[in-house]
Specification:
Pfam families: DUF642. The protein is about 20% helix and about 35% strand. It contains 2 helices and 12 strands. Strand 5 and strand 6 form a beta hairpin.
Length: about 210
């Protein structure tokens, strides 16, 4: 029975190691736009490796124009022509496991104070809209805010999407530093699984 308990614990721990899910080009550095300070990418453009661009396109911002949260480049989900979105399929998920998507967001400092800026984030069973504050904007200053949300994988692949919900502005929500991590099973949960395995073994012996 000791061997069985040990196996249960190792299997529970191994569930967290088995996942190799990653975000491709999460900091938007894969294609350097310098010496440009910003670049508009229309829907379907190949200029953002790892991501599919939809809607009215997006802007890539270089730190020479607005400081990125991570690296030298970030994304404005509003191109000058209107609201856009980016999405990619995240592979290597373990069905039933809980994952955390982390990212940083900010309002483009060019947005007029008081304008309501929103964007939506979605993957798997998670859907949410985020409102970005604009009342304290300072020209040229990007106020990055860290954010995260958890979702449970229903498939080995899920689509991650960020979409602008801006209202008529030529600039909108900026995002950067997108990553994914496995939410570990609490130690109590691992022990519970091991205990249940032990009880099952004892019942089989008695029967």
């Amino acid at each position: 029975m000791k061997r069985l308990l040990l196996a249960c614990v190792l299997c529970s721990l191994g569930a967290g190691v088995a996942s190799a899910a990653t975000i491709t080009n999460g900091s938007f550095e894969a294609e350097d736009i310098s010496p440009d300070s910003w670049r508009i990418l229309g829907a379907g453009s190949p200029g953002l490796p790892g991501w599919i661009i939809g809607g009215d396109g997006v802007d890539v911002k270089h730190s020479a124009y607005y400081p990125a949260s991570d690296g030298n480049q970030s994304i404005d989900l509003v191109a000058s022509s209107g609201s856009g979105d980016i999405r990619q399929v995240v592979n290597g998920l373990s069905v039933g496991s809980t994952y955390r998507i982390s990212f940083d967001y900010a309002a483009n400092p060019a947005v007029r104070r008081g304008v309501v800026i929103r964007f939506a984030a979605s993957i798997g069973n998670f859907r949410d809209a985020i409102t970005v504050g604009t009342n304290t904007l300072t020209r040229g200053v990007v106020n990055w805010t860290p954010a995260s949300f958890d979702f449970t994988a229903g498939n080995t692949s899920e689509r991650l999407r960020f979409a602008s919900r801006a209202s008529g502005s030529a600039s909108g929500a900026m995002i950067d530093n997108v990553s994914i991590s496995l939410v570990p099973v609490p130690a109590a949960g691992i022990l519970l699984l091991a205990g249940l395995g032990g009880l099952a073994a004892m019942r089989r012996r008695k029967s």
